[in-house]
Design a protein that fits this description.
Layout (H helix, E strand, L loop, with lengths): L1 H40 L2 H32 L3 H37 L8 H23 L2 H31 L4 H33 L8 H8 L1
Helix pairs in contact: 1-2, 1-3, 1-4, 2-3, 3-6, 4-5, 4-6, 5-6, 5-7
């Protein structure tokens, strides 16, 4: 009876901390959406909102880490429960870093607006890439809530597509800079923004890898897709 009671308490604590991760994820999603809007509209007001949210995201990461440390110390979990707690910690770190990238985008947008060069920035391709990266993070959070391995694998594949888009965009920027030296400064700004967007996709990919770790007990970081798929068979 006591074991059951303790197990029920532990399950409740796991549910509670998982809910906090989803709450943090929702806040980071909002941060990214607002950053994308600030880029699309070159809105200084939206960019400022992103920066304002940064403090809340950072505070949530610290709170969740404290809660995880307390659970581990009191419950001494083993096997899958321990993997889940480790994955939650890694996920909150990746969410915080995704929020940092959104803040970088917002700060760059503010800088571009202040410089007066916003009108000449061909940012339409970036907005599409940003929407893809934001959607990928949302999908990663949904997969984490369900511990859905199949969805996690699809996220890894989609991130490869975002990386290819980023590489193609970089080649275009290099061409612009070679053809017109006046394009160098705005192109470097665009490159900074593109890299921040690509990193958001990378953080979604990292979360997907931790889902596989929790469910299958396999660390698939830095592993080719063919090997990952063979692990899951």
């Amino acid at each position: 009876m006591t074991d059951k009671h303790l197990s029920s308490q532990f399950d409740s604590e796991l549910t509670g901390v998982s809910a906090r991760v989803m709450e943090m994820g929702g806040l980071v999603e909002s941060q990214i959406r607002t950053a994308v809007y600030s880029l699309a509209q070159f809105s200084a007001e939206a960019a400022a909102q992103v920066t304002d949210m940064e403090g809340r995201v950072n505070a949530m990461e610290v709170e969740i880490d404290k809660e995880l440390s307390s659970i581990i110390a009191r419950r001494q979990p083993t096997a899958r429960d321990l993997r889940l707690l480790i994955a939650i910690s890694k996920t909150t770190a990746n969410l915080e870093r995704a929020g940092d990238e959104a803040d970088k985008i917002a700060r760059m947008v503010k800088s571009i607006i202040e410089s007066g060069s916003a009108r000449n920035m061909p940012a339409s391709e970036l907005r599409i890439a940003a929407d893809l990266a934001s959607g990928l993070l949302r999908k990663a959070l949904d997969a984490f809530a369900r511990l859905d391995v199949n969805m996690a694998v699809s996220i890894l594949k989609e991130d490869d597509a975002i990386d290819k888009e980023f590489d193609g965009f970089v080649r275009k920027l290099i061409t612009y800079m070679m053809e017109d030296p006046r394009a160098i400064s705005p192109s470097l700004d665009l490159l900074f923004l593109a890299k921040a967007i690509e990193r958001i996709g990378d953080h979604a990919k990292n979360i997907a890898e931790f889902i596989i770790y929790v469910v299958k007990g396999a660390d698939v970081r830095h592993t080719p897709m063919e090997t990952i798929e063979s692990v899951l068979k």
